[in-house]
Amino acid sequence: MNSKLSKRTKLLDQGVYLLMNQGYHATGINEIVNAVQVPKGSFYSYFGSKEEFAAESINHYIEPFIQLLTRHLQHSQADPLTALKNYYAELIVAVEKNGYKGGCLLGNLMGEIGDTSELCNQALKSAVERYKALQYKALLQAQKQGTVRNDRSAEIMANLLVNNWQGALLRMKIEQSVQPLHEFCDTLLNDYFVA
Amino acid sequence: MNSKLSKRTKLLDQGVYLLMNQGYHATGINEIVNAVQVPKGSFYSYFGSKEEFAAESINHYIEPFIQLLTRHLQHSQADPLTALKNYYAELIVAVEKNGYKGGCLLGNLMGEIGDTSELCNQALKSAVERYKALQYKALLQAQKQGTVRNDRSAEIMANLLVNNWQGALLRMKIEQSVQPLHEFCDTLLNDYFVA
DNA sequence: ACAAAATATACGACCGGTCGTTTATTTTGT
DNA sequence: ACAAAATAAACGACCGGTCGTATATTTTGT
Question: Which of A31, A134, A187, B45 is most buried as measured by Cβ atoms within 10 A of its Cβ?
Fold first, then answer.
């Protein structure tokens, strides 16, 4: 039966949702297991601790984003820069539907426990690195195509993308507006990066 | 006697320190009052609640930064752009001494409780706005002097500064390195902004 | 001026509740 | 019947916040 594995996945899904919207310390195991109708005792058969669970949630969270971005980059007939624009446009629409809630699990947990939980620190570093590497490759490819400027390294621009997006999400969160996210696109993807 | 007021200030000092390094939900009232040798009961004569205390801590936190930046902008004989560079260079040195710990209280609390605590949301918005306005004015002035490019609005560049700095601090936190902060200076202040 | 009464402040034990985790029991599969 | 997995109950610790009391200060009466 897949109910065991699916319960594990449900826990992670709910964990991602709650951890993103409430943070690590404000989210209790009870809240998670109650939401997905799993006995509290079972939680500790799936995960060794709350900290391990959070680290796994981080990986569980980033996967869909990596796949979505990969899809945009591969299955699109557009150049990589346009693919990046489309990807971020899709993200903004999604976040807008969500009522500007939560932001990014990676950013939130980086700020809250990024330097206090070794396990989560590792998971965060790995997730950010994978996510960044994907955008780095896209920028590098776009540079070769001539759609992105060549006089700045793709590495630096990838960092700009990642860091600015995180900052823009924080601004969105307190201002309850997607305006910072649109400005992010206009300033970087539609201006600074263009060849 | 100023012992009453100084105790209040000590509580806020300690609050800033603990809230920045551990976050809101991981920091208890007991931890704060024990650290500054103030009875727990007294805490609630100074502050109405933990939430109010955090909101006051936010204002208490940002003030020195605003004053330091103002000093750099006013008492410096350098142009505003150079003043900004000097200011951020000083910040980086300070953060390096601290062992990359904590990051920025504003950024951390924006991520953790920026959309769940109304009181803190207000305090965060106000603090960020004041801080941003200062840099906006500096950029505007630098534009008039011709040291900063005129074909991009100072508003957008100020947002870039604020947002990118927050993102860079998150990266610093998980990578335990000031490299993202230096890259921030090189990319924006020493490149994108220059006329 | 001074003792007594009234008021304000300081304080820590304590509240109900929740935390993350462990353990003992029940249920399940064979 | 029995080992293994699932689960409910219980654990001590700690949470934010309160409240009765002890101490200090001020006001009053003479």
Answer: A187
